[in-house]
Amino acid sequence: MLTGSELLAKVKEIGDASKSDLVRACGYVSTKKDGTERLNFTAFYEALLEAKGVSLGESGGKSAAGKGGRKLSYVATVQGNGNLLVGKAYTALLDLKPGDEFEIKLGRKQIRLVPAGSGDEEE
């Protein structure tokens, strides 16, 4: 599989080829158990982005919590029952444990959660 400047040179050289032919020519091909060919488009595009100096900001494509899957949006939505849920990925980032307590501080269209007993007296 080509990477870096070799990959960029090959892509430029091939030019108008189909995407499948481009992926194949750059070596991003594997063989399935049944012997058929599998084109690894994701690996190809990741290598192409890296060769062009584009960083996706995360190692190995993992989410901020390190478990894979969707990326964190840092947006919470009020549910139909009125609850506002902060998901496990966020509590894991902050190393929060069951039983940790927070004071709820209300402001203008905002909610702040302050660890109980932290002495944060701003307002």
Structural class: alpha+beta
- What average pLDDT do the residues reach? 82
Order of helices and strands: HHEEHHEE
Total strand count, please?
4
Helix content: 25-40%
Task: List unreliable stretches of 5+ residues.
Answer: 60-66
Name the beta content range. Answer: 5-15%
What kind of sheet is the major sheet?
Answer: 2 strands, antiparallel
Q: TL;DR?
A:
28% of the residues lie in helices and 15% in strands. It is α+β, with helices and mostly antiparallel strands and 123 residues long. A two-stranded antiparallel sheet has the order 1-2.
What does this structure look like?
- The protein has 123 residues and is α+β, with helices and mostly antiparallel strands.
- The chain has helices at 4-14, 19-25, 41-51, 88-93, and strands at 29-31, 37-39, 102-107, 110-115.
- Strand 1 and strand 2 (37-39) form a beta hairpin.
- Helix 1 packs across helix 3 (41-51).
- The longest helix is centred in the N-terminal third of the chain and has 11 residues, at 4-14.
- 5% of the residues are buried.
- Mean pLDDT is 82; it is low at 60-66.
